[in-house]
Each structure stands twice: as C-alpha cells, then as structure tokens.
Amino acid sequence: MIKNIAITLFTAISTWVFSQPTADQILKKVDENMSSENRVFESAMTINGDRNSRTITSRTYAVGDKKSFTEYLSPAREQGTKMLKLENQLWIYSPSTDRTIQISGHMLRQSVMGSDLSYEDMMDDRKLTDIYNASITGNEEIEGRKVWLLELKAKVTDVAYASRKVWIDTERYIPVKEEFYAKSGQLLKRSTLSDVLKIQGRWFPTKIIFKDMLKQSDGTEFKITSVKFNQEIPEYIFTKAALKQ
Amino acid sequence: MKIAFKLAYRNLVGAGLRTWLNVIVLSFSFVVIIWMKGIITGWDYQAKTDMKNWEIGEGQFWHKNYDPYDPFTLTESHGKIPEEFRKEVQSGKMLAILICQGSIYPNGRIQSILIKGIDPKQTLLQLPTKKLDTAVNAIPAIIGNSMARANKLKTGDFITMQWRDANGTFDASEIYIAGIFATNVPSVDMGQVWIPMEKLQSMMILPGEASIFTFSNSDISRVQPKDWVLKTKRDLTASIDKIIKAKTVGQSIFFAILLLMAMLTIFDTQVLSIFRRQKEIGTYVALGYTKQQVVWLFTTEGAMNSVLAALLAACYGIPFLAWQAKVGWTMPVNASEFGMAMSQTLYPVYSGALVVSTVLIVMLTTTVVSYWPSKKIAKMNPTEALRGKIQ
C-alpha cells in the first residue's frame, strides 16, 4: 500500500517537475514573444500627476532592442520632438530650439516627459538571461490567469536593478507584472502589463502601467494603439540627420 | 594765499543758506559713498571668510575630472586618497570629501541632490558633522537651512534617498535628518545632503576614495599627486572677486550720478557768484589782484564747500557709519536665493584708504568744478567789471 502511494507520488512529482519549464526557458520564450526583428507602433502615454493628467502620443520605429526612433505627435507642445536611441547613446531633438542634444550622465536619470519612466529605463537593452540568474519561486493567479513568479538576481555587477520579480503568464509567456528592487531590497518601480492581444501570431500586452514606487503619483500608463512587426524600415531613420527632418 | 582762504571763507559763510545747501548735499555724497563702498568691502570680507569656514578652508585639491559646474563629471571624479595626503588627513588638517549624485523623495516628490561624504569628527569646517555620529536605524544626514526650507524638512525627519553605486546599480535607503545648519554659503547647502564618509564610500563601493580634499594650512609645501589638481583660495574665491568687481562698476555709476548732482549745485553757485559779483571782481583787480589770483580766490571759495562738507559729514557720518558697522544692514530680500555666499545682514568695513580716497576724489572734483566757471574771470575787462556791466 505504502509502496503504491510512494510510486504514485513520485510519478506525480516527476510529471510536474519535467512538465514545468525552467526559469531560463521561460525567460527565453518571453524574449522570443516580446522581441521581434523590428516593429512600428503608435502609443499614447498618459502621465498621471497630483493635479492633472496629460497624454502624449508618439510613433516609434524599432529594430531589435538596439535601435529606436520615436517621434512625438501630440500635444502641440511636444509635437515634432524626436528621440533616437542607438546602442547606448540617446539624442533628443527639440523643434522649438531646433537643436539636438545628447542625453547622457545624470540627464539619463531624469524622467521622460515628466513620466515615471527615466531615460535610462529605456537604455538597458541586454537580455534578461544575460544579466540575471532566474528561479521560479511560486505559482500564482493574477486576474484569473495562472502565472509563474520568477525571481531574478543580478549575475553581473553593472546592472541597474539588483533584483527583479516577474510574474509570467503560464500559457501566453508574457510578463503581466514586474517589480524592480534596489540592492537594499527596497521596491523602486513596478510595471503592470495588460490588454493582451494576439498580433501577427504572438501574444502582446498593449497596456503597461509604470509606477515609481518612491514617488507619490498614480503612475504612467503606456498604451500601444497600433503595432506592426517585421516591417521594412528605411535605414536612414536611425541617423541623427533624421531627427531634424 | 592766507588772505585768499580768509576771503573765501568769509564769502562762503556770508552766502548763508546757499552755501549750507551745497555743503549738506555734498556731505550726503561723502557719507553715502563711504557707506556703500564699506558695504561692498564688508560683503567681500564676509563672503570670503564664510567660504573659508564652511567650504574651502585655505585651499583644496580636486580630482582631475571634478568640475562642480558639470554633473556629468561626477561619476568619474574620484580616486584613492593619495599617499602624500594620508598623514595630513589622519591628523585632521586635511579633509577628504566624496561627492556623488542621488535623489531624495520629500513628500513623494523627486529631488536631485549631491550626496557628500564627510568625516563626522572633522573640525576643519564649521559644518556640524558631529551630529552625523548618531546611532539610528537609517543613514544619519545633515542638511542646510535652504535645503530644509525648500523641501519642507526638519530635524528628526526620515526620507528615502536613492543612488546608484559605482557599478550603476540602484540602491535606496532611509536617511535621518540629524541636524539642520544655518550657513551663508549656498554651495554647501542647496541640493546637498551630508552623510558620514565611510558610509558613503561603502554605499558607492568606493572604499578609501574621495573627490576633493580641503586643507587648513596653505604654507605647507605639498607634492601635487598625479590626478589631483591644486585649487588655491584665490582660485576658489575668484567668483566672489568677479561679482564684487561687477558690483563696484555698478556702484561707480551711482556715485557718479550722486557726485554729478552735488557738483551741479556747486557749478551753478559759482556761475551765479561770478555773474552777480562782477563789481567785486573789478574791485579786486583795481586793488592790484591779478586775474589769476581772482580765479584762484573763486576756485578756493568753491573748493571750500567740500571742506565744510567733509566737516559736516564727519559730524553726523562718523556716528552713523560706526552704528552701521555694529548693527549692519539687513537686506530687504532673502539673500539665500541669490545663490552666492551672502549673509542676510551685511556689515560695512571701512578702511583708512577708503575714507581718504573718497575725500580726495570729492575735493578734487569740487575744485575742478569750481575752477571751470571761474576761468571766465580771466577774460573779463576790469573796467567793465567795475561798472557792473554784464560780460
């Protein structure tokens, strides 16, 4: 009797263990899902302040994680502002001054258009598996969907966040929530991803809410209004000359 | 000569109210010029003394990459304490300071700051760093008055501070405001948080490193270590000199206007005297005075206004200036918002050179202004003058 129970239990555990992918496999699948050769998307970023909210719309062209070009479309005050990211360099063109400035050093820590996102949040384009050791620490349910909770600990020294927690949808392999921690363990930022749609055969979250946990605000909502993967993007877009056009 | 002085004095006193109005206006110029120049000298002295006491000591060594006006340099501007400085640092005659960037979140708002690490036991600067020796479950910190006011912070408050270590990794912790100091030097106050040096070094993973060194004795000949640049007291207070120079130019324009007004009255008085006293001029010449002597007499008369003005100025000016030197002049606007080392109350400093130069300038100007209309006498026809005919 005891022998039978042991065999059943062993079989059940083995099935569970071997059916569940490893943390690295999950992250790899997430990377495959979230990244593409290139993409063109339009988005609306709503910055919720203490007194009011404002929405900034933009169009972005991106190739992998290394190159991106964003043009702000509205409101009138931001219209025509352009941002170019090439590897670890970032330039911003302001039409009001007709000048292009490179954002570096401490300026990277400033928020993008007053949002909860800093420029440097947009700069780290390394793959998670390259900079973190991941482990599955739990299975949870968020808004009716089963998720894995992954804990990521930095394995390299030059990383912005010493640890992260990522909640990943077990079926769609997309993150639904992410928390960023300081070395001391203090929670610094949280992002919540939702409104998942199947676009060109892949699941993709179209709404992300970023929240700087040290600041008093309702966070910044980033809504992708249209996205197209694997488009033909002319190479000249990713040049400084394109900023002034 | 003696007669000329006697006559000039008698004529001046005889003119009564007209003379005294001139003298009062001129004496006012004396006092205002000396007071204003004294304020500027006092500000120069106070600013440099405060900078010495609070920030620069007798000079500093900066890391070669350090530029206080360029925050881009901060991540690269630190280095190991050089062997040449170690002895002086240990004896407390040289102070190592590490400077890094960070943010605090007072009342949920983000505020960029400079985090400065300093030895809590230091006595070289007037910063109350002893308060950093506080055992508390957070990082003890001291901040300046302006910083506290701008961020609505008070002693005993806890706020979150965020920074990135030398590798670029974010870290955050609570800081405890152990003390708030009042200083006139904004460069140790605005947007700055002072914490214990060792704590900052461990936070940043920069053990034994510093960004600047402040020393208390400039007479020691030191070997300038590689990567460190000497900044003398003169270099560090050059900005004050520039401001003072700019202010002095501005003040000179004001003095010129003030003097112009006083000189205008003297000039008018001289013109009127020569016009009304033509018979007198003719009589002097008839009595044997040369024309030059008459010119000299009238010039002396005009110049004597400044002597009387100096005496009058001394009567009420000395007590006033002495009182000002004691109580100072409190500016009607908040001096901490000027962004330079400036106390709310400025105490004028008067030097002998300042008083003598002012008196000489006013006297010389008065003499020139008095001589100018008197030149006309030399061209006068004595006979016509005796008749009182207008020439």
Polypeptide structure, described:
The complex is a heterodimer of chains A (245) and B (391). With 245 residues, chain A is mainly β. Helices cover 14% and strands 47% of the residues of chain A. Chain A has a domain at 21-64 and 110-231: Clam (outer membrane lipoprotein receptor (LolB), chain A), CATH 2.50.20. Chain A has helices spanning 2-19, 23-34, 128-131, and strands at 38-48, 53-63, 67-74, 82-86, 89-94, 99-103, 132-142, 145-154, 163-169, 175-181, 187-199, 202-212, 220-229. Mean pLDDT of chain A is 85; it is low at 14-18. Chain B has 391 residues and is an alpha+beta fold. In chain B, strand 3 (94-104) and strand 4 form a beta hairpin. The longest helix of chain B has 40 residues, at 17-56. The chains are: A mainly beta (245), B alpha+beta (391).
Measured between the Cα atoms of the first and last residue of chain B, the distance is 27 Å
Beginning-to-end CA distance, first to last residue of chain A: 79 Å
Q: Please, how many domains of chain B?
A: 2
Order of neighbouring strands in the sheet with most strands of chain A: 6-5-4-3-2-1-13-12-11-10-9-8-7
Subunit arrangement of the protein: heterodimer
Count all strands of chain B and give the number: 13
Gyration radius of chain B, rounded: 32 Å
Derived structural class of chain A: mainly beta
What structural category arises from helix and sheet content of chain B? alpha+beta
